[in-house]
Amino acid sequence: MPFVFNFNSLALLGIYHQYPADAQLIKLKTAPMTVQPKLPYVVFSRVDSPSLWVRFSIPGQGQKRICLKTSDEEDAKRRAEIEYQRALWSAEQGTLPGKTSFDKVARQYLESAQLEAGSNPSKLSKVAADRGVLDRYMVPFFGRSPITAISVPKLHSYMEWRRSYWTSGPGAKETHIAYERKGRRVIRPAQHIEATLSTLRREAVTMRSVFKHAVRLGYLKASDIPKIDLVAEERNKRPSFTDAEVAKLMQVAEQRMIDVLTPQRRGKQQPNSWKDMDGKEITPSVSRVAYERTVLYWFINIALETGMRPTELFNLDWAHIVGFKEERDKPIVEQRIRILAYGKGKKPQQLVPNIGAATSFAALWDAFKKVHGREPRDDEPMFVNASGERAQSYKKSLNALLEAAKLKTDVFGQVRSAYSFRHTYATRQLRKGTDVYTLAINMRTSVRMIEMYYSDVVPEDLAKQLEGSYD
């Protein structure tokens, strides 16, 4: 069907520039109109910019607005096409800068880690530790900064800020730190000291976990994760115990158990009952303090006989002691057990303890049975408090014991801790001639670490060679 056009209208559209003044309506036969495809971007101007801009959307990335740095329309159209194609390619390669902030990725990481942890105690403690570091330090510092905008210089700025957080930074005026433990609010004094290199390294693992989660979600390429090198500090010999000091420590520990063995104090009978984690009343023949000191006593023995890390010890369940039930009725010299250690790695690693460890495990089993009136189940933790809950730390009670034995520090003034039993184990093994490679495997560490920290430990048979004459 023919269309009717008015020349005046055509002129307004810029189609005709000259036409008769007395032109009348005429009928034109038109060719079929070609429909221009809709462009995936829009070129527009802004009142606050002399240049033209382009905007477009990329699936999964949201809308992008880019300044084209030209006011020429034709040049702007050409540049708009280039910017759009570049963004498409970058999105496909996973390199398109996004707006996802650090705090959002951190929250997503914690949610994912919490789900992955399930009911695993070691993983749950890792999530709790990560949450504390992120909430107090990293999220306040990086905040809404895009995860893609955090560069190596930015990380160095953070490390300097974190190092002095408690001395001249935001924490300098804080007197106490409040946190939750097992549903209860706990308050402890703040320590106004600089963060050590080991602390910064430990927290850097948390930061890297957030970046790796960003890669997993497609916000970042793995090759774009910023890396920061923390300069190694001077290595010191780790504090351990001599054989004489071990004997003294165990003697004091035994006496402290005897002092509170019965629920009496200053001649008065004390209430001797408490509730377990299920709310059941416990009324044993020994006091609560005596039971907890007994568990600490055997904790020390097992640490000395296995060389396990404190974390590995606290992660132990009875099922992790392979062959315990089958071997416990045999003579001590014939008992052979193996331990599955859960600690730094995701998978359990088997270790061979000293023969004396079997006796310590049996004593711990009997102590639990005496207090709780039943044998521990395979899925129950080995080291527990009086209520039967998994112990997370014996720092307070161990420090009290070390103070009582006057063994809190070694001869160099270095403070001893639960880790010192692992160092004592390593020292003893090397002195009796255990091969360094075998020891490294059994301690779940590297030969380099053994050589770095224990190179001054000389096996006795080699010492005799060194002390002999040159004849």
Automatic annotation (TrEMBL):
Alphabetical list of InterPro entries matching this protein: DNA_brk_join_enz, Integrase-like_cat_sf, Integrase_catalytic, Integrase_recombinase_N, Tyrosine_recombinase_XerCD
Superkingdom of the source species: Bacteria
Keywords of this entry: DNA integration, DNA recombination, DNA-binding
Gene Ontology biological process: DNA integration; DNA recombination
Domain Tyr recombinase as annotated: residue spans: 256-467
Molecular function via GO: DNA binding
Family: Belongs to the 'phage' integrase family.
Protein name: Tyr recombinase domain-containing protein
Organism whose genome encodes this protein: Pleomorphomonas diazotrophica
